[in-house]
Specification:
The chain is built from nine helices and 14 strands. By secondary structure, the protein is of the alpha/beta class. It has two domains: 29-265, Type I PLP-dependent aspartate aminotransferase-like (Major domain) (Aspartate Aminotransferase, domain 2); 269-384, Aspartate Aminotransferase, domain 1. The strands form four sheets. A seven-stranded mixed β-sheet has the order 1-9-8-7-4-2-3, sandwiched between helices. Strand 2 (93-97), helix 3 (100-113) and strand 3 (118-122) form a beta-alpha-beta unit. Helix 2 (75-87) crosses helix 3 (100-113). The longest helix is centred in the last third of the chain and has 21 residues, at 269-289. The radius of gyration is 21 Å and the shape is globular. It starts with 43 loop residues before the first helix and ends with a helix. 48% of the residues are buried.
């Protein structure tokens, strides 16, 4: 590939990071002008703001009325850990992993909780594991969308309605961009910083009635840190799910989440959000289909993420090199686009195969994705010319 002319049209927003992600179109700090600065989150105004975030989350995601929604500390990671530490151990558990964060949950169950009756069902980056291997009479932990692999489950059909165990789903890069099958999910977690482009450090924990029943009938064998405690005296702490948070939340971050939720309402709610992410994925897929140096890391079209789109360089001049040199080339492509101010933070995740990762969630404009593809061609040609 010879060097090509630098594109004339620049991206309007170069923020393609997979977390924290781009703010919604038109966002400015003025969107936070109604934040109750210096007020307690336990004051009526603080509690009302937190409750509003919970209520709007339920409305936009279509969460069933009998599911509880809580704002918890430590982003999606905190929400997942809280669920695993509070709920696992009552029966055997199947841990399902096909990317970095799924592997993290596996390691925590094996090395921290040390649940002996644990089965690990894994697959390499780029594909789903054999989901028919999962035993839903056991508890199951899985990610809906693999943020570091760009591979998602296509739907919830693989989960039986008459399961005996609980399903714990890390949905952090799926919520608000992919349709979650709520009757099949007992625990769902995500963070504000993904599809809606909110600020970090806060997570959402959504519990089905079956999950609540487990909490109130089972006490884990291990000590429970205060920050993970969801029950008191054998009963769920209901305040967590109406805005009485476990620790002090940022009202500034909550105001930003509220702004993003109102924006989501304005574009048609969940349907509008999904349509925007799908359009971005299509723009990437159209480009990949006509480009010979790049391909999706996710091999099966039906399981490709419409948010964390992971790409691998397949040009023979690159794939013939050592893995270290392939990784160096991908880094150079990402660094060149960063230097040009065209795309920030698009290098693949540190534990994933070398390549590029472009966030295509709902806050990203399709026009920017289309502009980026031309710049990707230019950056790769420029780096290849130096080989």
């Amino acid at each position: 590939m010879a060097a090509i002319e630098k594109p004339a049209v620049r991206t309007a927003n170069p923020n393609f990071s997979s977390g924290p992600c781009a703010k919604r179109p038109g966002w400015t700090p003025a969107a936070l002008s109604d934040v109750p600065h210096g007020r307690s989150h336990r004051a009526p105004i603080g509690k009302a703001k937190l409750k509003a975030a919970i209520d709007l989350t339920r409305e936009i995601l279509g969460v069933p009325a009998d599911y509880r929604i809580g704002i918890v500390p430590a982003s999606d990671t905190g929400a997942v850990e809280m669920a695993m530490w509070s709920l696992l151990g009552a029966r055997g558990v199947d841990m399902v992993a096909w990317e970095s964060f799924g592997e993290t949950w596996v390691a925590d169950v094996l090395k921290q909780l040390k649940i002996k009756d644990t089965r690990v069902i894994k697959a390499d980056y780029g594909v789903l594991p054999d989901l028919t291997q999962i035993d839903f009479n056991r508890d199951v932990v899985f990610t809906w969308n693999g943020t570091t692999s760009g591979v998602r489950v296509p739907n919830g059909d693989f989960i039986p309605a008459d399961r005996q165990g609980l399903t714990i789903c890390d949905a952090t890069s799926a919520a608000f961009a992919q349709r979650l099958d709520w009757p099949k999910l007992d625990v769902v977690t995500f963070s504000w910083q993904k599809v809606l482009g909110g600020e970090g450090a806060h997570g959402m924990l959504i519990l089905s009635p079956r999950a609540v029943a487990r909490l109130e009938s089972y006490e884990p064998a291990w000590p429970m840190p205060k920050i993970f405690r969801l029950t008191n005296g054998g009963k769920i702490i209901e305040g967590i799910f109406v805005g009485d948070t476990i620790n002090t939340p940022s009202m500034l971050c909550n105001e930003d989440y509220l702004d993003a939720l109102h924006w989501a309402q304005s574009i048609g709610g969940l349907d509008g959000l999904i349509a925007r992410a799908d359009a971005n994925l299509k723009a990437m897929a159209d480009w990949v289909a006509k480009t010979d140096w790049v391909d999706f890391l996710a091999r099966v079209p039906e399981t490709r993420s419409n948010t964390s789109v992971c790409l691998r360089i397949v040009d023979p001049a690159v794939t013939s090199l050592s893995e270290d040199k392939q990784a160096a080339i991908a880094k150079k492509v990402a660094a060149l686009l960063d230097k040009e101010g065209i795309a920030y933070d698009i290098e693949s995740y540190r534990d994933a195969p070398s390549g590029l990762r472009v966030w295509c969630g709902a806050t990203v404009e399709t026009s920017d994705v289309q502009k980026l593809t031309a710049w990707l061609d230019w950056a790769f040609a420029s780096v290849k010319a130096e080989l």
